[in-house]
Every structure is written in C-alpha cells, then in structure tokens.
DNA sequence: GTCCAGGTTTTTA
DNA sequence: TAAAAACATGGA
C-alpha cells in the first residue's frame, strides 16, 4: 500500500508507540504532548506542514539515506528494511517512553496499550472529548501503588512510581541524558528500579531519539541469532536503532523464521 | 488448566 | 558468576 496512510501505518504500527490507534475506516488517532490528532488521507499533508507534528513524525531526517546505507551492509538487513521502508522513529515524550516501556516488560503490545490508556484516563490532563494527555511524572510520583495495581499494573506498579519520583525530583534529567553518550545515558537509566538495559534503550531510542540505541527484546535476540549470527548491535553503526526497528517489525511478521531457534 | 507476552529483580547453587 | 524463580495480569 504505497499511500501516505500506508507509510504512516508503518511508523505507528511497528511497536514503538502505544497511544495511537487505527480506526475502522483506516484513519489514525492519537495523543502526543497533550495534543489530540486524527489523521486521514485528506488532512495528512496539512498535518505535516504543522512544524509540531512534522517534528514529532521526524520528517526532517533523511531516512532514505539512512536506509540506503543500512541496505548496503547486508542483504538480510535490506530485506527487513524493504518490508516497511517508510518507518520513522517518532520523537516521543521522554517520560512517556520511559514509563510506557516500564509497563512493557513481560507483557504484550495490546495489553500495554490498554494499560497506558487507563493510566492516562486516571492521571492525565483531560484535553476534551474523552481524551487525556500522558500523566506528568510529578503526578505519578504522588500516585498510590495500590491504585496502580487496581489498574492491572501488577508488579510494575512500584517501578512506575519509583521512576516518576526520580524524574519529578530531577535525579533523572532528560535534557542531560539527551547530550550524554549512549553508554553513559544507559547507565543512568538502569540505575532506576525496574529499568534494565532493554527498557533503557527503548527510552533512549524512542524518547530521546538516540539513533544508535538498539533495544534487545526476545524478538531481537532471536533475530540476531538466526538472521545476524556473530554480529552485535555496534555492527549496525550510528543508525543501529533504525535497523533495530526494521528487524523487529519484520521479525514479528515472519515468526516462521524462528520456529527452530 | 497451561502458556506466553518488546524484562527485571531476587533468590539460589 | 550464572541459572532459576518470582513478580501480576489477561488473552489465546
């Protein structure tokens, strides 16, 4: 489907975000930075003329160039990139990315989206028409663990509150993390309870747009073993994060590749 | 009922 | 150090 909406779907449906939904008519709606957006084939080009959304959808980055560079490295990587070539890495809110991926552990994407929706409804600012912003860290720092467990968060509840407190109190400073080298920033984030290397790398890639971050979840571990034996994330270079997203999306849609893994 | 889901922490050997 | 087990919940 080589349409604007088809291209957009690759970005919104590749597992990097949890606050966007495809409606029955194929249009998309979601909330970011407290702004609601409904995207249709008709309004899409206008949306991208809005500097705010153009930045959110990362329209200023040369993905064609990045993709070409990655495709030259390896034919398997080229095949993965070809499966969803129009994927962009969204510029999500750092706290939303950190919090969402804390929720993602030992969980599936559908349920993560439901949990994020309940969190926003319970603690986020009402932006009208039954829609809610992602809650501020300052708000969740004051939340009750039992209340979060009542939302179905399970063992993740204390992790969310603990991380929220660290952000609210400035012990985690996203502006500082943004300009740190990857490894250093990862070490800071993994100091949080409930944040290991995978959640840290998701935060760095999706929330702080560090393109060299390479989140290693179960799918990526399988993919590395089967599709890229002997290689490690640094082999993919400064845009490893984009490669990761191609491979993750491709792998999830080709589970038969890993039946013997 | 059993298994698994974009992990991490705690316990055990 | 490294491998299990525990951590909660809901859907298949």
Provide keyphrases for this structure.
DNA-binding; 261 residues; 5 strands; globular; three-stranded antiparallel sheet; mainly alpha; single chain; Endonuclease III, domain 1
How would you describe this protein?
This protein is mainly alpha-helical and 261 residues long. The protein has a domain at 94-207: Endonuclease III, domain 1. The chain has helices at 4-12, 44-47, 51-56, 63-73, 75-83, 94-103, 109-123, 137-140, 145-150, 156-168, 174-178, 182-189, 197-207, 218-227, 240-252; strands at 20-22, 28-32, 35-39, 126-128, 131-132. It has a 3-stranded antiparallel sheet with strand order 1-2-3, covered by helices on one side. Helix 5 (75-83) crosses helix 15 (240-252) and helix 6 packs antiparallel against helix 13. It is globular, with a radius of gyration of 18 Å. It starts with a helix and ends in a 9-residue tail after the last helix. The model has no long low-confidence stretch (mean pLDDT 97). The structure holds a DNA duplex (13 and 12 nucleotides).
């Amino acid at each position: 489907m080589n349409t604007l909406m088809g291209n957009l779907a690759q970005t919104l449906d590749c597992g990097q975000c949890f606050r966007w939904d495809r409606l029955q008519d194929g249009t998309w709606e979601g909330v970011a930075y407290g702004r609601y957006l409904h995207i249709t084939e008709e309004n899409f080009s206008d949306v991208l003329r809005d500097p705010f959304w153009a930045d959110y959808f990362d329209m200023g980055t040369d993905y064609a160039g990045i993709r070409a560079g990655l495709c030259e490295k390896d034919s398997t990587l080229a095949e993965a990139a070809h499966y969803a070539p129009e994927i962009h890495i969204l510029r999500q809110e750092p706290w939303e990315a950190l919090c969402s991926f804390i929720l993602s552990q030992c969980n599936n994407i559908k349920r993560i989206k439901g949990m994020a929706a309940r969190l926003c409804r319970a603690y986020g600012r009402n932006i009208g028409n039954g829609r809610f912003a992602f809650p501020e860290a300052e708000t969740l720092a004051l939340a009750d663990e039992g209340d979060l467990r009542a939302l179905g968060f399970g063992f993740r509840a204390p992790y969310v509150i603990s991380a929220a407190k660290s952000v609210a109190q400035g012990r985690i400073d996203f502006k500082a993390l943004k300009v740190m080298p990857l490894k250093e920033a990862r070490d800071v984030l993994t100091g949080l309870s409930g944040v290991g290397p995978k959640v840290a790398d998701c935060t760095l890639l999706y929330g702080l747009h560090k393109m060299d971050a390479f989140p290693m979840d179960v799918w990526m571990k399988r993919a590395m073993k089967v599709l890229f034996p002997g290689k490690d994330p640094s082999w993919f270079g400064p845009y490893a994060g984009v490669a990761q997203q191609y491979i993750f999306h491709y792998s999830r849609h080709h589970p038969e590749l890993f039946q013997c893994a």
